Amino acid sequence: MLSVAWTMLAGDRAKCLGIVLSLAFTTLLITQQGAMLQSILSSTTSFVDSIGGIDMWVTDPRSAYIDDIKAMTDTQVNRVRGVPGVAWAVPLYKGSIRARLPDGSSQNSQFIGLDDATLIGGPGDMVAGTLADLRVADGILVDVDAAGGRLAYPLSGGGTRPLAPGDTLELNDHHARVMGIYRGRKNFQSQPVIYTTYERAKAFVPSERKLLSYVLVKLKPGADSAAVSRDIARLTGLKGRTTREFSEESLRWFIANTGVLMNFGLSTVIAFVIGGGIAGMTFHNFMLDNQRHFAVLRAMGAGSGTLIAMVALQAAGVTLIGYGIGIGAIALFAFAMAGSEITLTLTWSMIGASAAVVVLVGGVSGSFGLRRVLTLDPAVVFK
């Protein structure tokens, strides 16, 4: 009987194709919106998440999220070092600077200053050069995407080439020499990210009394992070948060103060309603066209359980095929967009969530047809 059910479905090619394509469209759009949203949300905290080897970020108590920088004085680093439970603490600068190319064009860039002695907080995936090359006079590191894109080196005959070690840039009227290229995570602003040392960053940026953005802290073995945070607040007046706490607080601020979640959520709901509506109506029309066949089967003694199994097989079949087409299409799209400004973060949880939504759409669509089959009176059809 199950083979008969599948033959009935495959025999009506137009409606079968309509159901499959509507479910594929639902899968494609829901997964694309979710993957893009996840990529955007992860980029908002990428700077915090990418720095390993530390336990705590110390900021001005008024700083609500990662980019809400309230500059502090350099003396705060020594004050944090004196807090019980702190193994070591180093300064970190984060700001913006205008990078000028030899042809006169310029790009706004993020500017990161690392502790001169330890270079803690620097990129770990170096494509060319080493992190230690930052100690060379006027040395900087540039991310690989910017080196081949916005900061690509202009050629005299026209065109550009990727920025390479040995090239020079002008940062706020200061000569800077590219010493290395690294591969890093994209930031929310999609700006080039340039690394240098802390003291050099202070010399490059406009002179201000306060330039310290964060203090990166490593705790002593066995030290309680909550207790250290309280001591930092009590002894220095600053706010200490673990990496996870700082990342989660930044993410919550972004979600609460921007409309990105609502916009993507609305698009997902629209995709669910449209795709599910088309699939449900098409499946319902399929049942109407084939009700005479189900009536014959019921008249021949097929019970409700058999009919339910037949309809469930039809609904599950088109759902799996449609989901496979949709998830394959979004995977190809993500592969094609790799390295571009459009980024998609496909995770197993995202794939599983989209599968659950599509199964729900397929189940709702099948229930329309099942209700029609179970309430079918064979005598009415034969008349």
UniProtKB/TrEMBL annotation:
Transmembrane segments: 260-283, 295-314, 320-339, 346-368
Pfam family name, one: FtsX
Protein name per its UniProtKB record: ABC transporter permease
Keyword annotations from UniProtKB, A to Z: Cell membrane, Membrane, Transmembrane, Transmembrane helix, Transport
Residues annotated as domain MacB-like periplasmic core: 17-234
ABC3 transporter permease C-terminal domain ranges (all copies): 268-378
Membrane topology: Multi-pass membrane protein
Predominant place of localization: membrane
Native species: Azospirillum oleiclasticum
UniProt subcellular location: Cell membrane
